[in-house]
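A reminder from the course coordinator: this example appears on the midterm review sheet, so study it carefully.

Given structure:
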């Protein structure tokens, strides 16, 4: 079969008649509202589970509507009709969701005895209800929760949409042509020192020019996060909100960030090795991702898909089957086009539908790796869908990065094995990626912690940008030269706007995956079953327990150090 870059096919989740779908959702919602009188401390488990099933069925219909509108807009953020529809759908679903807030509030207020009885009888739904009880102390009254839902739709969500629209319109005049952001990212990895510098300066220029607007968006997102989550809901601090949503102990994330900080000097050593290898008198931040050799080969999309599928087939049939399903259903938007949202993502839909992947394929090896990464997410979602419910299929963010990074690692190991001559260059590239996905991502989180504190103190965006630059210079070490343009790099990172403190998920996923991959190499194919079981668990229990399926203790600094020990050995190899 010949694979070509193409837009995705959203037909199976897009309503044929949107107004009819609105009426269907409203009818189902109102039917559940009528059951409110049944919600007492003496409710039977049968009645309780009947309502849960109705909520789950409604969630499927609503998810298809919401996700189809969101994906259509993501493919072309400049399409005003798509933007208007996405906004209309979001407002409608918020309004319907507000009608049903009473259910979760009722469950949180139940007596401990009754809640335990219903949780014990709920089967695969148990963790969902356990999490509701955990969030009890951070829950407000019904009308307050409704107001916050409306506020989020017209406030924080609207601000992130403005950021998306603004940045998706950025066009780059580079080497005599108009370029997209995805194309610019390929130039920052050019073999030409001059090209790398010009590409970075061009890439960050619009963020510098719009720093006041982007900064105002970010300042208000930070203030909204603090006022709602810390001051109203009573979370301990801004990052504790994300940790609580992920159901990961603060001490586990602190252990992770501590170990990342302690191991920064390991990469200082790698940067010096790379400087000598590149024969540069001074290594600049512009040169961090410089290839040892120019990547002249353009890899066709067809070849890329087959490379990835062969990699998955060599690991486990479940990986190959899930990825093939996503590809063959045309659930990948892979072509480069104007107005398309930058970056790449994999979006879950429902347990009844395969996820969707967005990326912009430009023919570089990095794009092949991105394809493997996003399909890794899709595999994780697909495996969980087969075993879990609508309420327990989605893994928390850090665990959600495990399969994606593991898939990248499988690909790079296969490529190095198939092409021993290129293995050394690829090892340098792999270390580049590990810096970018561990140390750099942990650095973003430490910056976010600082930024939230600075905005609380009333500091300016310029002051915050200066702090970012100072932290980056410390992270890279005294021998790497950092241009002042990098003080605006934070504005280029969408996760900081969309999902505060998301980025530790990458460091978490990479270090966890390095440890898992070492176990896989030691124990052989039989260990693949444990990896499959971990992914099938989705979000069905605490992440600490899910990680233990593969023998990982995520609360221990000693465990996280194991990942860096693998990196240390890789640096010795290139040395």
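Designed residues:
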């Amino acid at each position: 079969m010949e694979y070509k870059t193409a837009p995705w096919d959203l037909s199976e989740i897009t309503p044929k008649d949107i107004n009819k779908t609105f009426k269907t959702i409203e009818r189902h919602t109102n039917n559940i509202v009528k059951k409110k009188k049944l919600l007492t401390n003496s409710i039977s488990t049968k009645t309780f589970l009947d309502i849960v099933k109705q909520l789950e069925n409604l969630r499927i219909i609503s998810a298809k509507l919401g996700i189809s509108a969101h994906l259509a807009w993501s493919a072309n953020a400049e399409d005003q009709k798509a933007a208007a529809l996405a906004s209309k759908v979001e407002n409608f679903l918020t309004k319907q969701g507000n009608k049903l807030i009473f259910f979760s509030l009722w469950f949180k207020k139940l007596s401990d005895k009754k809640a335990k009885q219903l949780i014990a009888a709920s089967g695969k739904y148990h963790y969902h209800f356990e999490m509701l009880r955990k969030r009890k102390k951070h829950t407000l009254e019904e009308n307050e929760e409704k107001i916050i839902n409306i506020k989020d739709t017209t406030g924080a969500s609207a601000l992130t949409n403005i950021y998306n629209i603004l940045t998706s319109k950025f066009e780059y005049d580079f080497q005599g042509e108009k370029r997209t952001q995805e194309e610019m990212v390929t130039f920052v990895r050019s073999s030409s020192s001059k090209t790398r510098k010009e590409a970075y300066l061009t890439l960050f220029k619009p963020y510098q020019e719009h720093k006041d607007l982007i900064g105002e968006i970010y300042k208000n997102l930070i203030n909204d996060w603090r006022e709602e989550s810390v001051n109203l809901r009573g979370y301990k601090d801004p990052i504790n909100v994300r940790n609580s949503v992920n159901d990961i102990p603060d001490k586990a994330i602190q252990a992770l960030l501590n170990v990342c900080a302690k191991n920064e000097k390991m990469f200082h050593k790698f940067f010096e090795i790379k400087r000598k290898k590149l024969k540069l008198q001074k290594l600049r931040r512009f040169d961090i991702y410089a290839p040892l050799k120019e990547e002249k080969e353009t890899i066709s999309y067809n070849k890329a898909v087959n490379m990835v599928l062969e990699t998955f087939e060599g690991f486990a049939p479940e990986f190959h089957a899930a990825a093939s399903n996503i590809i063959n259903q045309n659930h990948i938007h892979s072509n480069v086009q104007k107005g398309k949202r930058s970056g790449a993502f994999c979006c879950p839909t429902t347990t009844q539908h395969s996820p969707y992947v967005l990326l912009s394929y430009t023919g570089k090896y990095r794009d092949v790796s991105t394809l493997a990464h996003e399909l890794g997410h899709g595999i994780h979602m697909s495996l969980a869908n087969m075993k879990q419910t609508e309420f327990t299929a989605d893994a928390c963010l850090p665990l959600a990065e495990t399969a994606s990074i593991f898939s990248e690692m499988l690909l790079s190991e296969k490529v190095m094995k198939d092409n021993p001559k290129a293995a050394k260059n690829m090892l340098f590239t792999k270390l580049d990626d590990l810096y970018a996905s561990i140390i750099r991502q942990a650095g973003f989180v430490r910056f976010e912690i600082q930024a939230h504190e600075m905005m609380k103190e009333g500091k300016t965006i310029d002051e915050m940008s200066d702090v970012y630059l100072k932290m980056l210079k410390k992270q890279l070490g005294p021998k790497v030269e950092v241009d002042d343009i990098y003080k605006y790099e934070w504005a280029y990172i969408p996760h900081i706007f969309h999902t505060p403190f998301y980025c530790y998920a990458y460091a978490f996923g990479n270090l966890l995956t390095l440890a898992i991959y070492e176990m896989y190499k030691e124990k052989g194919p039989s260990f693949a079953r444990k990896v499959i079981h971990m992914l099938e668990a989705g979000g069905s229990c605490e992440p600490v327990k899910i990680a233990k399926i593969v023998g990982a203790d995520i609360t221990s600094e000693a465990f996280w150090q194991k990942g860096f020990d693998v990196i240390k050995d890789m640096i010795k190899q290139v040395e």
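The longest helix spans residues 423-456. Residues 453 and 459 are 9 Å apart (CA to CA).
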